[in-house]
Design a protein that fits this description.
The chain is of the alpha+beta class. The protein has nine helices and 13 strands. Strand 2 and strand 3 form a beta hairpin. It is globular, with a radius of gyration of 20 Å.
Amino acid sequence: MWTVIPGNLDYRYDRRVDREFLSLFDHGGDFRTLTEYARTVRYPVDLQFRRNPKTGAQHASLYVGLTTVLDVHWRPGSVRLAAHPSFHGSGFHRSWMSWTALTEAPSRSAAIDSYLDTVIPKAAAGRAAVEGSVQAAVSSFDAEDRVMLDREVLLHFRDTPTKNRVMDSVTADLLHALRTVPVPGAGPTSFGGKCDLLAIDSSGRLLTVEVKPKGVPTIVWAPAQAIVYARLLRLWTRHDPDAAEILSGMISQRRELHLASSNAPVPPPRPEVVPVLAVQRGMSPEHRNRLATVRSHLANQGIEDATQLKVYEVTLAGRLLATGGNI
């Protein structure tokens, strides 16, 4: 695997990890309990792998809702752990933050499990109880026609000027259109580039998913944010010749750990990218109407992605309920 962005690319997305690192989380690996937590625990728990395409640095994150309760950083032959300082009083040992030979990992497994048993319920009762629960529910629900692949999806840019140029190119017309949308309140003046969730459907299309709990005012502007994510991922798939291989590799690694179902399709060389909005079931009629107004306004202003946007309501069991394209 490469560790720098190739000379002809301005950005890349690639979260495949090295085989030695992945094996730490399989049925015989030293950190297999993290995979077990993600697959079976009765809380909104999710395990995701991370690789920095510019540096090659790799780690795995165990989420409870939106909160990371444990990071496992890896380099050949050694690991170090990390957790937010607010969790250190729940059994996290500060000595775990130093690089340690993998041969020492088994001696720590019982203490790590004890820490997770303590911290997961605490984290689930906090921020994860709202937006985190919705996001974790969506990310964990695989259907026959959909496999969730990743969360907190980011492109890695060559440098800051490149990032600013690309973000301007994908947001300028949206920001202009939102200035005249007929709903109360000030619209967004900028957009972030971190997509909540990435999925792939049975036809090989990529779904860039913006997740919203039912009660937040930002639901109104969520169609535009979902469109930004789709545009960024579309740029990547069209300009990176390795995009399909990268996606296939990520799917294969999650499937190997049984974190994704075995029916995940093989993406085509240039997959279609579709923006998706997943809102917790039960949003107010006011939010529903304003969201629909924003979406219609964007479509009337010539934003093609607004007509392609798929809107779902989501249960806390993770089931996406189709709205027939309307809300």
